[in-house]
Every structure is written in C-alpha cells, then in structure tokens.
Amino acid sequence: MTTILVTGGTGTLGRPVTERLRAHGHEVRVLSRHSRPYTVDLREGGSGLESALAGVHTVVNGATTQRGGDERSAANLIAAARRAGVSHLVCISIVGVDRVPLGHYRTKLAVEQQVAESGLGWTVLRTTQFHDLVVRVFRALARLPAVLLPAHARDQPVEVAEVADRLAEPARAAPAGRVPDMGGPEVRTFESPARACLHATGRRRAVVNVPLAGKTYRAFREGGHLAPGHAVGKGTFEEYLAVRYGHGEGGRRG
C-alpha cells in the first residue's frame, strides 16, 4: 500500500478522510499546525514539510483557512511535493469558485489553477457547503434579535462523511483531473435550513429575507454555488441536526 499525506488532517474533512484511507490499509501521515509529529504551517513551509513528504506517493490537501494564505500554502506544498517526487496531489474545492466573485472562492479557484499547472498528477473535487459550516453561519446570525438572510438565495448542504468517502476514492487511484462535482441531496431556500437550525438549537428568532445588491449576491441568487445536476449526497440537513443536537421538541439535549 502507498504512503499518503493528508494536510489539514485534524480538520472537519481531514479526520474522516484519514480514517477511510487507513481502513484501506494505507500508511497515512497527518499534517497540521497542531498535530505531531508533522506539525507544519503550510504558509511557512520549511524542513518539517520536507520531512512529512519524504517517501509519500499521494497528498490529499485539505488544509484551508478563512484568514487567507491558501495560495501561499499551495505554492509551498506543490514545490515541496515536486522535490519529494510525489506522484499525485488530490485537492478539495468548492462548487462555484469560477462563478461566484467571493474573495474566498477566488482564492480557491487560484489554488485549483496552481494544482493544474503544478506538473504533478492531480485530482480536484468540488463540493457544496458542508452541513457544519451552514450551522456555524446560522448560529452566528442568530446572535441578533432577528436572523437576516439574503432573499431569493438557496443552498445545497452536503454531509462531510459522504465527501470524505468520495475524496478517499481518487486518493487511492490514478490522477483524474477535475472529477464531477458533489452536491447535497436538496436545493432549498436559505430560510428552510435556518428555521430547522433555530428549532434544533431551541432558539426563537424572527427570520427576515433581505434583498441585497452586487455581483456576489446576484451570483448566489442565480445558483452559481449549487450543483443540482450532481445532487448525489444522501444525508439531509435535518438528519445532521438530529445527530448533532438530538431529537425532540426544543432540540438541543446538551
């Protein structure tokens, strides 16, 4: 079996990807800013990255941050992977990075381009938003007396465990370029999961749909971030909430 390095291996996606690869008998190294023995900040690179890549056949790059630096991290990883003779670089990305002019999406598109031009064998999987990210957004919005949502916008959240299953497949196979997008099972208005999240967490808030302006809002309103033709996910948002918060009236058990 091959040796695989998972960057961001302690994160929401990296952890289940690591579990699946190990279950298939691969030697898996986990790289992150906080886990030993491969404690590396990809934005800085350095000798720790070189050590982590020694003898590695495939890299699954799940490292990302909303604080910036993904392009620099990708550049450092690609350069070190070339020096180490890595054969395959597998990356996770986001549906709509080429259609929605959001800063983080533009960064993800730039990373995709770096990967495609790296000279390495590569595979990129784009998915819609994970259930847990949707919950974090709605919980933040619920700090106000009313939950303000962009009118006429929709979402298609997907279960991260299913994404891990899908991402582990190309990591164990030959480079495939950009593979088909992966979306959650349902395209629905923002209001629907927002109300489900409020119920599950036992919060009472008014939900107000607010018309917005600008290119980014228009792209979201037009569904640039959705993959209705690739709604291959099975787990629904309500099923995720039931597991996370428990069943019953008032939602949260603890």
From TrEMBL:
Naturally occurring in which organism (per UniProt)? Streptomyces ardesiacus
Instruction: Provide the NAD(P)-binding domain boundaries.
Output: 8-132
Q: Which InterPro entries does UniProt cross-reference here? A: Ergot_Alk_Oxidoreductase, NAD(P)-bd_dom, NAD(P)-bd_dom_sf
Its domain of life? Bacteria
One Pfam family matching this protein: NAD_binding_10
User: Under which name does UniProt file this protein?
Assistant: SDR family oxidoreductase
- What PANTHER family is this protein classified in? PRESTALK A DIFFERENTIATION PROTEIN A, PTHR43162
